[in-house]
TrEMBL record:
Phasin domain segment(s): 51-142
Protein name per its UniProtKB record: Phasin
Source organism: Mesorhizobium kowhaii
Length: 153
């Protein structure tokens, strides 16, 4: 077995900085003030973002209400037109004198109703497409604005 001899040194004239409580209190106060300022800034940004989101949702709900009213009116108009066409057709059927006239009248009515239904469906489809764009626009705009702000920061 061999012994490893280690070298030890003693430090005799080393000065350690003295602890000054007044400076420590000032540093703690400075850190606390900085934390308060940062908290205020974060709260202000959150408050602003929440207000923007609230306005976007209000706008979206208002647009949805307007669009649903429009859709309801369009649906009622289509139902009314179809009912009137049905009653007019029924009056015409009452006046029919021959079976061939009946089938001719019925075929023409069905063809006209199919065309009208296709036209109404296209109108509803166009309204729904516009409605989905209009309803989502305020939220989309708010989201894009928030992304631009975050990218700039």
């Amino acid at each position: 077995m061999s012994k490893i001899t280690g070298k030890t040194e003693t430090i005799e004239n080393v000065e350690f900085p003295t602890f000054d409580p007044s400076k420590a209190a000032e540093q703690v106060r400075a850190v606390a003030d900085q934390s308060v300022e940062q908290s205020k800034e974060v709260f202000s940004k959150l408050s602003s973002d929440a207000e923007t989101a609230q306005k976007a949702f209000e706008s979206t709900f208002e647009m949805a209400k307007t669009t649903s009213n429009e859709m309801l009116l369009k649906t009622i108009a289509a139902l009314q037109a179809n009912a009137e066409a049905g009653f007019t057709h029924l009056e015409a059927l009452v006046a029919v004198k021959t079976p061939s006239e009946f089938f001719e009248l019925q075929t023409a009515f069905l063809r006209k109703q199919i065309e009208k239904s296709a036209e109404q469906a296209k109108g509803v489809q166009a309204l729904m497409l516009r409605a989905s764009e209009d309803v989502s626009k305020p939220i989309k705009d708010a989201f894009e604005k928030a992304l631009k702000v975050r990218k700039a920061a």
